[in-house]
Amino acid sequence: MTEELLENVQIEKLHTFAQDIRLVLNPETKNSSSEELLIWADSVTYDWQKGKPPKAEGIESKEFEYAIAITWAEQIVKRHNWLWVKLTLHDTEDWETLAIVSADRSLMILPSASVRESIKGDTEVLIAASNNAIGSSVIPKFAPNSYTSIMHGIKRILPR
Q1: CA-to-CA distance for 115 and 130, rounded, in angstroms?
Q2: What is the CATH number of the domain that holds 37?
Q3: Count of domains in the chain?
Q4: Does the pTM exceed 0.70?
Q5: CA distances (Å), 66 to each of 84, 112, 127, 131, 138, in order?
Q6: Of 152, 55, 150, 59, nearest to 108 (Cα)?
Q7: I want to staple 144 with a disulfide (CB 3.0 to 4.6 A). Which of 10, 103, 104, 118 is the partner?
């Protein structure tokens, strides 16, 4: 696996893209707190998983998916001092993807893949839960530079 740290201009483009789509779906999110945006991303993904996808004229489902993933990832980066990176996974035919990683690279989230798996029903929607798990005893310590994906290890204790 190789990593490339995203530059501020790339991060700003991601933010603008996600915000523009989010505001089409729900203009009230313009001044939302980080916590409210996490809940919004979790709720939209959950509704989509249950057969109620977001809809807006001229916006493709992949764009919605990407905007949700970016919104979620931005909140984790802000709240936990994680970093945006582009990863190349050499053991999967050099697949490139955006990820967020902890500063020591012990933990990572692949936000787009996680949102896609949730929408398809392959996994439970754990966007809001991921924020609560990071930095808690729920996630054990992993070695620096291990890039441990946390999303398949998080389990919801209480039902929705």
Answers
A1: 12
A2: 1.20.120
A3: 1
A4: yes
A5: 14, 6, 14, 18, 27
A6: 150
A7: 104
Those residues whose C-beta lies under 8 Å from the C-beta of residue 31, and which sit 6 or more positions away, are: none
Provide the residue range defining the domain that includes 119.
2-149
Q: How far apart are CA 147 and CA 91, in angstroms?
A: 14
Q: Is residue 155 part of a domain?
A: no
Summary mean pLDDT of the chain: 94
Show the tokens assigned to 63: 């764009």
Helix (H, G, I), strand (E, B) or coil at 159: coil
Q: What is the pLDDT of residue 81?
A: 97
158 in a domain, yes or no? no
Q: Are the beta carbons of 63 and 21 closer than 8 angstroms? A: yes
**Which of 89-115 are b and which e, b meaning 16 or more Cβ less than 10 Å from the residue's Cβ?**
eeeeeeeeebbbbbeebbbbbbbbbbb
User: What is the enclosing helix (H) or strand (E) of 94?
Assistant: none
Confirm if 95 and 88 have CB atoms less than 8 A apart: yes
Q: With 0-12 CB in 10 A as exposed, 13-18 as middle and 19+ as buried, what is 82?
A: buried
Length of the chain: 160
The pLDDT tens digits for 115-129 are: 999 999 999 999 999
In a domain, 140, yes or no: yes
Query: How does DSSP classify residue 53?
Result: -
